[in-house]
Amino acid sequence: MPLPRLTLYHRPGCHLCELAAQGLDALGFAYDAVDVDGDPALRARHGDDVPVLACGERVLGKGAFSRARLGGIKLLLLREAQGTGSAPPP
To answer: Tens digits of per-residue pLDDT, 44-65?
Structure first.
């Protein structure tokens, strides 16, 4: 079952953002990377809370994303896609 496409809100030069992108790539997530500094509304919305991982308007998490945390998010999204309930929040 395919996972939904996610959005990674990031800032250039942000080490945590780079690590989040590497983890997403390693776990095979499809995502769009969006620079919060390129849009004043996004900058106001997210401030310094980057990286932010979202599915549509739903924020899945903020801050550091370890592979374990991303794995938990992947499990949650797979369970939701299959309609088998939800996992504990990551």
So the answer is: 999 889 999 999 999 999 999 9
Instruction: Annotate 13-36 with b (16+ C-beta within 10 A) or e (fewer).
Output: ebeebeebbebbeeeebebeeeeb
Q: Is the peptide bond before 51 cis (omega within 30 degrees of 0)?
A: yes
CA separation, residue 18 to residues 24, 32, 78 (Å) = 10, 13, 24
- Alpha carbon distance, N-terminus to C-terminus of the chain: 20
The widest CA-to-CA distance across the chain, in whole angstroms, is 39
Kindly report the pTM of this predicted structure.
Answer: 0.89
For helices 15-26 and 67-82, the axis angle rounded to 10 degrees is 50
Return d(Cα 73, Cα 23) in angstroms, integer. Answer: 12
Quick one: tokens of 57?
A: 């308007």
